[in-house]
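I would like you to sit down with the record closing this message with an eye to the fold:
=====
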Amino acid sequence: MNIGIFSGSFNPIHIGHLILANYIVEFTEIDEIWFVVSPQNPLKKSQDLLEENVRFHMAQLALEGYPKMKACDFEFSLPRPSYTINTLDEFQKSYPQNHFYLIIGADNWEDFTKWKDHEKITDSFKIKIYPRSGYRLVIPSKLKYKVEALDSPIIDISSTFIREGLSESKSMKAFLPESVYEYIEKNNLYKLML
């Protein structure tokens, strides 16, 4: 089986993530998308980051009813910070029958050479890159057989935008799966005051 690894803070998971994953499992050779909730991204500050189990629970809520997508807390038991190469290697060891693909945005691709063991990632795994507004995607010719630019819809929704709206008591209901919005509202997350 071909598994797409879509890692992120998912702080919170939103409809843009679901639209992208839905496109990938329906229009590429990827059979399933595993949403890997990262406890700690070494290139991101941890402020405004909800506790990892809360973010994982929101991902589980969001993915109910999507049989080709699943929330994954695999990184919670790995050493921190969470380096992508370590996660991918551990996935391959744990599920040797599967082929793992890394799914990242064009913004992450721009910084990819800063990632730990980035050359090992491209040597060992295929990468699918989704477009982001304001980022021009350049794939070196030597990587064209391993790295693919996706023709997926560009979704200009970010978790930061949603968090900021929620903190200002704005309704962000249309940007979030209903179950996630209700969970955020019920638990007063991101200073949501309605």
In short: The chain has a mean pLDDT of 93. The helical segments are 15-27, 52-63, 84-94, 106-110, 118-124, 159-167, 178-186. The CA atoms of residues 32 and 68 lie 5 Å apart. Residues 15-27 form the longest helix (13 residues).
